[in-house]
Amino acid sequence: MSSKNTESEADRSTGSRIRFLLLLALGVWVLRSLIVAPFSIPSGSMLPTMAIGDYLFVAKWPYGYSRFSFPFQFPPIDGRVLDKLPERGDVVVFKKPGEDMDWVKRVIGLPGDTIAVEDGRLIINGRPVVRADESVTEIPVSPNSPCRVAPGASPDLSQANGEAVCRYPVYRERLPNGRSWLVIDQIDDMRADHFGPIKVPAGHVFLMGDNRDDSMDSRYSPAEGGIGPVPVDHLVGKATFAFWSTDGSASYWLPWTWFSALRPERIGEEYRP
Fold it and tell me: Is residue 13 flagged as an active site residue?
């Protein structure tokens, strides 16, 4: 075989590899930008719905697409394409205004809604949301969930099935359309439990964490460390379900610990209200 033929075959092989890598990169971009992307829960602001260490899929299509839907915000499109508002009660992932950081909260108010909180009771458009006491929820204590409580509250540690658990008082909020979810309300916080009323501006949504006394959300301005009402354009997608969950005891360099740290009961946990 001549050296010319050998070089030609090498060129074709290199060209095939380059095409494969380009197609692979395009496929990953399409998947992460238009269909679904992974996200992990770093804090307890959405307890008891989401546990620290949950890894979940975020559906990209339900609310349309903006530049925040895409990795590195490219292409930098203006506004939203195929725009659709979320529903009250949806759990959404969004870019925190002013920062390139993904956050997750629950949609409480839509554009034009009036939102208030009185004595911890959520009020939407002048109507108190039905709230029923459901006693306590027990969160297993682990390296990434060390029984954190809101300032002014005391940790309530107990034992359940031979393991340490942290007990939080919980209530079930229920919208008139039947959608409901559990919220943690640990103390009477003068800032978090007494808010508003405010009207949600056009093109914005009002977001809150389910762990009401330990969530910097739309009740707080960006200057206070919160987010204020969030522009709809900043929505990344809708939280769907957990595909993995770890208690924080795993070591990156010890692969077998990835499985000993697994919380299998949380795999497949859905976040729909």
Answer: no
Question: What is the secondary structure of the chain as a DSSP string?
Answer: --HHHHHHHHHHHHHHHHHHHHHHHHHHHHIIIIIEEEEE--SSTTTTTS-TTEEEEEESSTT-B-GGGSGGG-S--SS-BS--PPPTT-EEEEEPTTSS-EEEEEEEE-TT-EEEEETTEEEETTEEPEEEEEEEEEEE-BTTB-----TT----EEEETTEEEEEEEEEEEE-TTS-EEEEE--S--TTTSSEEEEEPPTTEEEEE-SBGGG--STTS-GGGTS--SEEGGGEEEEEEEEEEEB-S--BTTBTHHHHHTB-GGGTT-B---
Is residue 238 part of the annotated active site? The answer reads: no
109-141 residue pLDDT tens: 999 999 999 999 999 999 999 999 998 999 999
- Residue in 69, 105, 215, 245 annotated catalytic: 105
Write down the pTM of the prediction.
0.89
List the catalytic residue out of 45, 142, 145, 245. 45
| pLDDT value, residue 6 | 58
